[in-house]
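It is time I had a proper look at our fold encoding. Can you supply me with one protein entry, sequence and fold together? It will help me judge whether the discrete encoding reads sensibly. Leave the record below and I will have a look:
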Amino acid sequence: MSRPRRADKVESLAGFRTNKTEPTVPYGLLKAARKSGQLNLSGRGLTEVPQSVFRLNIDTPEEAQQNVSFGASDRWWEQTDLTKLLLSSNLLTQLSGDIRLLPGLTTLDLHDNQLSSLPSALGELQELQQLRLSHNQLTSLPVEVCTLQNLCTLTAQQNLLESLPEELGQLQNLTELDLSSNHLKGLPSSLGCLTCLQKLNLSHNNLSCLPDSLAQLTNVKLLDCSKNQLTNIPANLSEMLALEQLYLRHNKLRLLPQLPAPALKELYVGNNQIEQLETEQLACLAVISLLELRDNKIKTLPEQITLLSTLTRLDLTNNDITTLPASLSLLPNLKVLLLEGNPLRGIRRDLLSKGTNELLKYLRGRIKEEPERADEGPTAMTLPSQASVNLHNIKTLKLLVYSEKQADIIPDELFDAAADQGVTTVNFSKNQLTSIPL
């Protein structure tokens, strides 16, 4: 005979059920964090931060009793406050205001979560130096973040930010700011107050202009404004004295920016609408090493391209260039010249495939010295060997370059030749001159 079926079988287990508890952190991790001051909870699938994390600095009686069972190494006087908390790559949708219970934090990593807002309590973490917020769903930053006077790094890329608080300029110790891949249409003028900033990334936004105050960032070495809606660049950016790398790719620029920034070595202006290169813009690039002009609408290269005497890499890929000036071969440091995707005429395709050295050799062969006129006298372009210079530059570009000669004087013949040819620019750098005759 079969056993009678109990109708209340399932319900009889109700007394053994427990309510859903908050996620827990292995005690071993907490124990180690109390000693090291660092707690890494990245990639654990957390939907919220356990209270045991926020109360890590608080020695409750229960914890004290528990610590005894783990030996003398867990004594309260051997504990340290938490300084580094890593919560990246979880499923956090909010951060509790209890974060204020960890005032000693210097690093807080929240990147790659689902946060749509941040608590104002972040402003109480006055020791914070690094705040990583990238890859979330933030639409704004709480103004309290701007009170973190020790903050050095703020990364908030890949969010939904549409504006920034004007108080952002209060973060005067900030050295790195990444706001890329957001929905920013404008920037606060106080941005210029971040005078310690060295790296600023504004790429992948909806900026149509840059604030003039950007020029006050005299310590910025890298500025990335790629993939915006910029039609021009403020001329006063040349006041950014430390700027070495400037990225302006994928904008709506029609002219090469005229930026005599004294340290600018790399300029990236690919994927714009630039149609011509003008002498004024080229002359500004005094120490340029890399110039990217790919995917524009450039039709010709001016003879004045030789003004870029420090250039090592020139990318002209996918433009409308049909001819190359022979003077291009006179760039003394040019190592890489990219020309694919241009309708070049008069240059065999197989020559282009042989690389930069062969192409420059071919262009040098096209330069022919102009014959001297018999009536030009001794001050014509006949110079002694010790005064060897590039005659093409003098005659065509009105440029006299007599650099790196280890010379202690400049031959008089050079001054005579310069005057005779109407030279407007001279370069006597890297010599041993003690004076120059008037």
Summary: Residues 1-18, 67-73, 369-386 have pLDDT under 50 and may be disordered. The helical segments are 27-36, 51-54, 61-69, 279-284, 349-353, 356-365, 391-397, 412-421. The longest strand covers residues 38-40.
